[in-house]
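Person: I have long wanted to understand how a fold can be written as tokens. Underneath my words sits a plain record pairing an amino acid chain with its backbone structure tokens. Those tokens are not coordinates but codes from a learned vocabulary of shapes. I should like you to check that the lines agree and flag anything odd. The protein I mean follows directly.
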Amino acid sequence: QVQLVESGGGLVQPGGSLRLSCSASGSIFSTNTMAWYRQAPGKERELVAAMPSGGRVSISRDNAKNTVYLQMNSLKPEDTGVYYCYWRGLYWDPKTATNRGMDYWGKGTLVTVSS
């Protein structure tokens, strides 16, 4: 099993910045993907970032720590939502004594952008 713990959400004024963190732990054999999704009020969950790139919202990853970050700058009210960490990879399953592919979701961290 793999556990994901997110942190860094909160209330921020428009134009402000936040940095979200997500750490994966457990019987991880290898990590394929770590990404961030957002679910805004009344909307479906959508991908925010999976690959490093420049811009107002950027993702970065520390492979040694199995941690992914989401740096959000110049935040807007439409950035409001619950941000979920996503992990996909292989984990050690002691029941079958094999590495199994699986994806996991964190519980989410709320980001509210409001004045």
About this structure: Strands lie at 2-7, 10-12, 18-26, 28-39, 46-49, 57-62, 67-72, 81-93, 98-105, 109-113. The chain is about 0% helix and 65% strand. The mean pLDDT is 94. The CA atoms of residues 59 and 70 lie 5 Å apart.
